[in-house]
Design a protein that fits this description.
Elements (H helix, E strand, L loop, with lengths): L16 E3 L4 H12 L4 E3 L5 H10 L4 E3 L5 H14 L2 E2 L4 H8 L1 H10 L14 E7 L5 E3 L4 E4 L2 E4 L6 H17 L4 E10 L2 E9 L5 H8 L3 H9 L21 E8 L11 E4 L10 E8 L2 H17 L1
Parallel strand pairs: 1-2, 1-3, 3-4
Antiparallel strand pairs: 5-6, 5-9, 7-8, 8-11, 9-10, 11-13, 12-13
Helix pairs in contact: 2-3, 3-4, 4-5
């Protein structure tokens, strides 16, 4: 029998969670808390020390930074530690290194992972990695940002062999720095050479691309792993087609007006409450067995959104 690794049976049992941010940026963190049976509270527009003090007044013992950038996460992590709150993310020293590009590159170089050439300006490849407290790690599917609010996974620039090698590099780097939880490691591809460029802790807003292609909920997995849970691997191969053919997923941020999607196979809409009042954005995710199918579904969904 597999061990029961639900969050409530892990060393990091928490009474309730304060989720930083609001709207779309806080959506997935709140959903993950609800799915795992963790009561949670929104930030109500509070930031920094004021947010931490609010969390303490409400009896929270865990603070989730949602999709905050590394600088905000570092500030929240330090404030949480001073207040006696647990924090969903790396410790202060690792967060500080992630926030400093030179420091993060030095850490990764010491692990034996090649670095990107600083002088090259090329579109990076972003690869989410999960690591548990026992050091077991899993690299998911890389994505590439196509423009503001648009991304695709996997990158069409990689061969299956390069994709496998990229995963090996990301796992090696994440394990070497002592990561527990979720981080996205970014790499450059210059010719046939892959090199580490930067890393971002926790949720970034692009997790859905890997989720729909692997079946893992990265927001849930992040909380489980921080709480001491063991790494879980996808129950099926990428889109069920095996190595080298992971299908395709596409992400696009949508703005109101608009607002109706009929759903259907391969279509997901991440949208906060409020029907657009104060929260004007949503994320459209579409996926298919190949690029052509994903693009057809994207066109259908966008046509509905724009005509509704």
């Amino acid at each position: 029998m597999e061990p029961d690794d639900s969050l409530g049976n892990q060393p990091g049992d928490w009474r309730s969670v304060m989720v930083a941010g609001s709207g779309l940026a806080a959506l997935r963190a709140g959903q993950a808390c609800t799915e795992l049976g963790l009561p949670w509270h929104g930030s109500d527009g509070r930031h920094g020390d004021e947010l931490v003090a609010h969390a303490r007044r409400l009896g929270c013992d865990l603070l989730h930074p949602a999709e905050a950038g590394t600088d905000v996460q570092l500030s929240l992590a330090r404030a949480s530690r001073r207040a006696g709150l647990d924090f969903v993310g790396p410790g202060d020293s690792l967060l500080a290194a992630m926030h400093d590009p030179a420091a993060s590159r030095r850490l990764i170089r010491e692990a034996g992972v090649p670095l990107s050439p600083m002088e090259e300006a090329c579109s990076p490849l972003h690869l989410p990695v999960l690591v548990d407290a026992q050091g077991q790690a899993l690299a998911l599917i890389e994505h590439e940002i196509l423009g503001p609010g648009r991304a695709v996974a996997p990158s069409e620039r990689l061969t299956p062999e390069q994709r496998a090698y990229l995963g090996q590099l990301a796992v090696k780097g994440a394990q070497s720095i002592g990561l527990v939880g979720l981080a996205t490691l970014s790499f450059s591809l210059v010719g046939n050479r892959l090199g580490f460029a930067a890393m971002q802790p926790g949720l970034t807003g692009y997790e859905g691309l890997a989720e729909v292609l692997t079946g893992l909920d990265l927001a849930v997995e992040q909380l489980r792993l921080i709480g001491g849970g063991r790494l879980r691997r996808p129950r099926v191969g990428h889109m069920g087609h095996g190595p080298g053919r992971p299908g395709q997923a596409r992400l696009q941020q949508l703005s109101f007006p608009g607002g109706f999607l009929s759903g259907g196979p391969g279509v997901r809409l991440d949208r906060p409450r409020g029907d657009g009042a104060g929260f004007p954005d949503a994320r459209l995710l579409v996926w298919g067995r190949d690029a052509a199918e994903a693009e057809r579904r994207e066109r259908r969904a966008l046509a509905e959104w724009e005509c509704s």
